[in-house]
Design goal:
The structure holds two protein chains of two kinds. Helix content of chain A is 9%, strand content 39%. Chain A is mainly beta. In chain A, a hairpin with a 6-residue loop joins strand 11 and strand 12. The radius of gyration of chain A is 19 Å and the shape is globular. The longest helix of chain B has 27 residues. Chain B has one domain: Porin, CATH 2.40.160. At the A-B interface, helix 1, strand 8 and strand 9 of A face helix 1, strand 2, strand 5, strand 6 and strand 7 of B.
């Protein structure tokens, strides 16, 4: 189980990022990499080693349940790494993209999705049963209703923050969508590795967020055209 | 305050503390998760609800939930419109083949407050899965209902409205521990299910039974198997559909079964049946020399649920037949029958906000007394409509208006309103 202060801190931090990002506050006068004649962008890379993680969300012990197959997929703990304060010009983005959060074997796949504001997320149902995707988060409140296998519905996320996604029918299904106002973030791969590209030279606070581990921040300096190494080992 | 009261109060405080801790945690992330201990071996969840409503002088919403405190027996019927309930559910996994499930519940009943009630194991059973890769489970103990669909929605959050379907809640005048001596005696109790009394058996006035109990569960063994298309369940238990028991009051056993099919996604159609000796041996012995196991409750049920988009529709019908001993004239001709039909629907208007309605009818067969033929209990109709709003994923506020109509002189019409808050993790 996550301790509540950790989660509270994580939520507060992401909100802070959103506010700061909207204000476009520069750090150390860093410039966006796209500017002609500006310094060459670098990168931040590293690994997040999760020494102990809380167990994944489980089904409520519903005593009226008569039993049945356990269809769930194993949820891999994923972390999201992001710059707490984005460089100036970080918001000069191209067209927002599209992302996908699948519903498969009574599990949202992936469990954590990170997108930029304006992204449209598709929620296909790949199960043979109904699902009902919804969120009552302040960042995005929606309810897609019940729809069957092979069908998909989409939501556009215009506000930065954390969106907690659930299925109205299956209480054990949950996922997180982290919506950023800037593109400087990355989700860890299966081995916990990450890489944030296109980071202008400068000094940044990098945050590591994981819904099942403690929130962590560290400072890193990115040199022109170089990749800075930054590892995390949240408890 | 006595020791027992202190112990109860401590239990209430512990349950509330647990609920509040979980709520505080939930508030941080807009969701409360079950508590997981022992690396996933133990899972705990909680369910808290409190309802309030207008005075119900016609006892339309009184239920068969009863306090286990002997001092409260006479006031044990509780109204679903005025109730506080806290439940802690747990599951302990013991390897791949065994798990133990239970629910500890405290609830206000009648005039007693929640802290006066004794915590009760409303469910407690072991689930055995003989083959890990096959969806076949055997459950032994105080088990979930086999019959029908609504009976397996014990959590307040599963109920769309504040009130309950008549077939699962409304108290008929029949009692397992007392028997009407003749048709006139049964007819005298029309519309008096909240406090019924007959001359044979237990002479103390008590509440009657609904067609199918949902607030108390039966004890026995159950087998459940499922495929993508079909669910099948069968059970043998000590009590009956209307009167589930932990300790049997007669020597017979109830046999129940249900088959549900899923012909298309979103549609579930089920059929159920049950049969078991209804009356307590002591009551039957006072009426007749016949075998108590011949006086049974036999029930058939049909249920359907269809959902799509923002709609949810449910319908359920129960036909129940009780065989009563013939004591003296005017005799009750054959078994007495009761039929309930319930149709309910929900539409989600906005994210987190829904509107719901339920229409109910409860009818009874006719018997002939000295004054002529009449239904053995008073037919009841109910219309309930309301709305629910999710403050967050696990906090639900409900409000509803209810109109009841009954074919009796005592409170033949009733306009009621109720509100309920539900929290779970």
């Amino acid at each position: 189980m996550l301790s509540s202060p950790r989660r509270g801190l994580a939520s507060a931090f992401v909100c802070l990022v959103a506010v700061l990002a909207v204000l476009e506050a520069p750090t150390d006068g860093a410039l966006a990499p796209q500017r002609p004649g500006g310094p060459r962008a670098g990168a931040i890379r590293g690994r997040v080693e999760l020494r102990s993680v809380a167990p994944p969300p489980v089904q409520r012990p519903n005593v009226s349940d008569l039993g049945g197959p356990d269809r769930r997929e194993v949820e891999r703990p994923q972390s999201v790494l992001y710059l707490e304060t984005a460089p100036r010009g970080a918001f000069e983005q191209p067209e927002p993209g599209r992302a996908r959060l699948d519903q498969r074997n009574e599990t949202f796949v992936p469990h954590v999705l990170a997108v930029t504001t304006g992204t449209i997320v598709d929620f296909p149902n790949s199960d043979r049963i109904y699902h009902n995707v919804l969120s009552y988060s302040k960042t995005a409140r929606f309810d897609l209703g019940r729809y069957a296998a092979g069908r998909s519905k989409a939501v556009r996320f215009d506000k930065a923050g954390i969106v907690r996604v659930f299925c109205d029918i299956h209480s054990h299904m949950s996922a997180f969508i982290l919506v950023f106002s800037h593109p400087f973030f990355a989700v860890t791969d299966e081995e916990g590795r990450y890489r944030i590209d296109g980071v202008p030279p400068g000094t940044y606070n990098v945050a590591a967020w994981n819904d099942r581990a403690s929130f962590d921040t560290r400072t890193v300096t990115v040199a022109e055209g170089a990749a800075a190494q930054l590892d995390f080992a949240p408890r | 305050m006595g020791l027992r009261s202190k112990a109860r109060l401590a239990c209430v405080c512990a349950a509330c503390g647990l609920v509040l801790c979980a709520r505080a945690a939930a508030a941080q992330v807009l969701q409360g998760q079950p508590i997981v201990l022992g690396n996933g071996a133990v899972t705990l969840s909680g369910d808290f609800s409190a309802s309030t409503g207008l005075d119900d002088p016609g006892f339309y919403n009184y239920t068969d939930y009863q306090s286990t405190d002997a001092a409260q027996e006479l006031e044990s019927a509780d109204s679903s419109l005025r109730r506080v309930r806290a439940a802690l559910s747990g599951r302990v996994k013991a390897g791949d083949h065994f798990s133990f499930l239970g629910e500890l519940r405290i609830q206000s009943a009648g005039s007693s407050q929640i802290w006066d009630s004794r915590p009760e194991a409303s469910a407690l059973y072991v689930r055995i899965r003989p083959w890990v890769d096959r969806a076949l489970d055997i459950q032994v103990g105080r088990i979930p209902p086999t019959f029908g669909a609504f009976g397996r929605r014990p959590y307040t959050s599963d109920n769309l409205l504040v009130g309950y379907p008549l077939g699962y809640q409304y108290l008929t005048s029949l009692r397992p521990d007392a028997i009407p001596a003749n048709a006139d005696e049964l007819l005298r109790m029309r519309g008096r299910g909240w406090l019924s009394n007959f001359s044979v058996g237990n002479p103390i006035p008590q509440r009657g039974v609904p067609l199918a109990a949902t607030f108390r569960w039966d004890t026995g063994i159950q087998i459940h198997g499922t495929t993508d298309m079909i669910d099948a369940t069968a059970s043998i238990t000590t009590g009956t559909l209307a009167n589930p028991l932990v300790k049997d009051d007669n020597s017979g056993r109830q046999i129940a079964g249900r088959v549900a099919v899923h012909p298309i996604v979103g549609l579930v159609v089920g059929a159920s049946a049950s049969r078991g000796p209804f009356f307590a041996t002591n009551a039957v012995r006072a009426a007749t020399t016949q075998d108590p196991d011949t006086f049974t409750q036999t029930a058939w049920g049909a249920d359907a649920e269809y959902s799509r988009g923002y709609y949810l529709l449910r319908a359920e019908a129960i036909v129940s037949r009780w065989t009563l001993p013939a004591v003296r004239a005017p005799f009750i001709d054959g078994p007495v029958r009761a039929t309930s039909v319930s149709v309910e629907g929900r539409y989600k208007i906005l994210p987190g906000l829904y509107a719901a309605a339920r229409v109910d009818h409860l009818g009874f067969s006719t018997i002939t007394g000295t004054a002529g033929p009449r239904t053995w209990d008073a037919p009841v109709d109910r219309l309930e409509t309301g709305a629910g709003y999710y403050v967050q994923r696990n906090v639900l506020l409900k409000g509803s208006y209810q109109f009841d109509r009954r074919d009796t002189n005592r409170v033949p019409r009733s306009h009621l309103a109720g509100a309920e808050v539900v929290f779970w993790f």
